[in-house]
Amino acid sequence: MRIRDSIDTDQILPKQFLKLIDKKGFGKYLMYAWRYLDDKYTEDPDFVFNRPEYRKASILISGDNFGAGSSREHAAWALDDYGFKVVIAGSFGDIHYNNELNNGMLPIVQPRDVREKLAQLQPTDQVTVDLEKQKIISPVGEFTFEIDSEWKHKLLNGLDDIGISLQYEDLIAAYEKQRPAYWQE
Question: Do 28 and 50 form a contact (C-beta atoms < 8 A)?
């Protein structure tokens, strides 16, 4: 299977779908120009997402520079809504990398040889991503990956920035009690 490099956010989710504001419903527009033959959503049977054996995939394997281009969180929403929980690439656009993390997805950086081995697996082959051990476990080998410890904690515990703040709710309330909410001289 071919691994594409430089898939930008406009290819992940074209600009005409950015007017939608709900996080759900973007999955059908994911990779729109490649998935469909026309504007009537006639699927291209040769595109990998349209093959029955890959429709429920939760791991996407890509080339280098995945998610480069404009800053559009909608691209991460589309990947998540389609069902992808992990994206394995050679590198990521910085903003897109953080958008995936902020939306509960796990972007993993791996060298090309590892990605090519994983891409050659059959759809029935089991691939497991163990975030706690920071390992990809597959029939072609086990591969380690790096992740910032704070992001790892957030993903393992289903937390976002607000969830982290709520863990300190008692301390915040105690601090606010000691400090007035208005200016005093």
Answer: no
Q: What is the pTM of this model?
A: 0.92
Q: What tokens does 8 get?
A: 């930008």
73-82 vs 94-102: helix crossing angle, rounded to 10: 50
Range of the domain at 166: 148-185
51: left (phi over 0), alpha (psi -120 to 50) or beta: beta
Instruction: Give the residue among 114, 115, 103, 113 at the shortest CA–CA distance from 7.
Output: 115
> Could you tell me the two tokens for 45?
């049977």
pLDDT tens digits for range 36-49: 999 899 999 999 99
The verdict on 37 and 128 lying in the same domain is: yes
Same domain, 14 and 62: yes
